[in-house]
Amino acid sequence: MVKAIFNTFSPLIRRKLNRSLKHLIDWKFWPKEDICHALELSQTVKHKRWEFQGHMQGNTLVMLFQKTSTRTRVSFEAGMSELGGHAINLDWRATNFTLSSIRFETKYLCRNAAMLMARLKSNADLLEMEQAASVPVINGCCNLYHPCQALADMLTIAEDRDGAISGAKLTYIGVYNNIVNSLVSISVALGVHLTLVCPIRDSASVDEEARQRLLQAGQLKETLDIESAVAEADYVYTDTWLDMEYFNDPSYDQEKNKRCDLMLPYQINSKLMRQSQAKIMHDMPIHPGYEIAEDMVESEQSIIYDQAENRLDAQKAIMLHLLHGL
Ligand code: CP
């Protein structure tokens, strides 16, 4: 009730009163109980969708994209609309972030927005935004983390197991990247056992602290034995082998070809999955014929579209928690 009244105040008044500003840069910065709560809230929001209509009335989310997006853009905007709020989309290249500092531009945005969601290339830039912000900042995917995707992934697994997520066995096959870091940090809180099959692992891409936490919890296994990793998995997950901003860039052709040669034995295909009942996951966008064979995308074992759909409710839960403390 108090929170509801608080949110009817102008952004300026809210900023002055707000003593409990919380952001989502990655799950590793949230306590375990808050992560479990975010998952439960995602399930509630999904199943009691109409009960949350109007919860964002009068609130604006500003979305800032330095990279392309389909799901993040659509699901945040649809989420705000369904909750009775409004979303403004900014393409970085069309803003004055290109001329001024992240600090100054962010401080301005917070004079109009109730929340910011940013897809920035660099985590350092995102942290600069977080430092300057007087409203919640949500990471819409940076070079190190993709927390919104990870919550949608966990919601998908929880639904598939009738809510019993603890003990689920998830095998990720691919490059060690931002998806992996966020899966690692959310898994430790939710009791998910993660097996990583990552032939390409650049140390600058690995959140070693999060990795150590999962290792110490006894929930992380790392191997290049793809057959055994699939044999023991409930879920098999893959992602692009090359950062999406480089995928169609001819200047990265040499690196792309090198990665494809190395990674092709780690493709999810019918031969790999022939003995397995594991569900197939992918965060999308899909590159058929690379990390996953085209016929696997819509196979009976695939839950890829459910996973992508769940971005909507996961992010509604994140926004409701950050803005209203639900
Ligand atoms: N998975 C994901 O973030 O999709 P988009 O890049 O299309 O937003």
Description:
The chain has 326 residues and is α/β, with parallel strands linked by helices. The chain has two domains: 2-145 and 310-324, Rossmann fold, CATH 3.40.50; 148-308, Aspartate/ornithine carbamoyltransferase (Rossmann fold, 3-Layer(aba) Sandwich). It contains 14 helices and nine strands. The strands form two sheets. The chain has a five-stranded parallel β-sheet with strand order 7-6-5-8-9. A four-stranded parallel β-sheet has the order 2-1-3-4, sandwiched between helices. Helix 7 crosses helix 8. It is globular and about 55 Å long. The termini are close together. The model has no long low-confidence stretch (mean pLDDT 94). Phosphoric acid mono(formamide)ester (CP) is lined by residues 69-72, 141, 149, 283-285.
SSE blueprint:
Layout: H1 2-6, H2 11-17, H3 32-47, E1 60-65, H4 71-82, E2 86-91, H5 102-109, E3 115-119, H6 123-132, E4 137-139, H7 147-160, E5 169-173, H8 178-190, E6 193-197, H9 208-216, E7 220-222, H10 226-231, E8 235-238, H11 253-263, H12 270-273, E9 279-282, H13 294-297, H14 304-324
Parallel strand pairs: 1-2, 1-3, 3-4, 5-6, 5-8, 6-7, 8-9
Helix pairs in contact: 3-7, 3-8, 3-14, 4-14, 5-6, 7-8, 7-14, 8-9
The structure holds phosphoric acid mono(formamide)ester.
Phosphoric acid mono(formamide)ester binds at residues 69-72, 141, 149, 283-285.
